[in-house]
UniProtKB/TrEMBL annotation:
GO terms for biological process: L-glutamate transmembrane transport. Keywords: Amino-acid transport, Cell inner membrane, Cell membrane, Ion transport, Membrane, Sodium, Sodium transport, Symport, Transmembrane, Transmembrane helix, Transport. It is a multi-pass membrane protein. The keyword Glycoprotein does not apply. It comes from Acinetobacter halotolerans. It comes from the Bacteria. It holds the Pfam family Glt_symporter. The chain crosses the membrane at residues 6-25, 40-62, 68-86, 93-112, 163-185, 230-250, 256-275, 287-310, 316-336, 348-371, 383-407. Residues 195-216 are annotated as: Disordered. Catalyzes the sodium-dependent transport of glutamate. GO terms for molecular function: glutamate:sodium symporter activity. GO terms for cellular component: plasma membrane. This is Sodium/glutamate symporter. InterPro entries: GltS.
Amino acid sequence: MEFTFNGFYTLISAVIVLLLGRLLVNKIDFLRRYNIPEPVAGGLVAAVLSLLVHSFLGYSIIFSSQLQTSFMLIFFASIGLSANFMKLKEGGIGLVLFLGCIAAYIVVQNAVGMSLASLLGVDPLIGLIAGSVTLTGGHGTAGAWGEILETQYGIQGALTLGMASATFGLIIGGVIGGPLAKLLINRHSLARAKTPAQIQDRDTHPDPHPDDLAPFENPHQVRLITADNAITTLGMFAACLAFAEFMTGYSKGTWFELPTFVWALGGGVILRNILESVLKVDIFDRAIDVFGNASLSLYLAMALLSLKLWQLADLAGPLVIILTAQTLVMALYAAFITFRVMGKNYDAAVLAAGHCGFGMGATPTAVANMQAITNMYGPSHKAFLIVPLCGAFFVDLINATVIQVILKFFA
């Protein structure tokens, strides 16, 4: 039997999940020590409870997806609205190097998936589904390409397999990033963990220079905003989402068709820099940061609430093997390639955690991973400048190009 939760009940459930996650991380030393993000901790408990109720009682809950999608779009719009071109220059050569790591890993991810699929005696395109289509692409890309693979390439159940693989990646991406970064930081003595008292003191005392923070950095820290600033910022978010909706419909079926969240991010970039550079309007970054962080947490909580773990049990044996291998390869690549290429320093360790997030799950997972690390060890301006833009925008463009080339080859 299924119960349907409307938007209000879904929002209440997401807040409960976040509060539960915060309680678990604060009370359980293991979660705090290995920097598991609060939405992931609470969401996994909710997903397991949902699995038990479904398995023993036959009940399941369908949560409203409308709010989840809206919070996701607001999060990506906040990335765009935070993209001051002058600040982005601070990324420098690191931005280019990190983008190179991402592009190379997308190729590696598909090579691993398709090679293992062939060795296991299944269609290599199954390996593509368990590659960058779902792990780097996430649920949105899985849905779009799953339909194409079913109708045009004859892969039966591609959509179901894609959603299950993306679900697996969302969970694992939020689990491996924190411990990997902690291992790198401790092994190379890159930073010293803060005590709970130090963390609480930092969060309750506003930064004397809050505008120097990178977007989404220190989400728990107090940020002073006013009602006027909040209303103006909400208006900018509404403009970004309206632009995204229009462009999604206008570009459908054309060569420049892109997912809605990419248009939301692009709209934010355009709006921010026109207002700031052309019209000389002061942008209040602290309000953007508050709304962006809140949307990030609520989106992740709702995404994990919607997980149906019993679907993972239905995965074919070969797919389980491929996904397990992908997890191992992601961790090794982040540790031995991303970390080393980015300089083998503290920023590089935080970037490695972020790469695990969107290499296996999604950009929100990447940001949550980095927040968990910087909350414990201190800020990483470079990581928070580089990862959101790369993970949300460039990754999807590169991923779409690689998938298109592979499909043309196999066609």
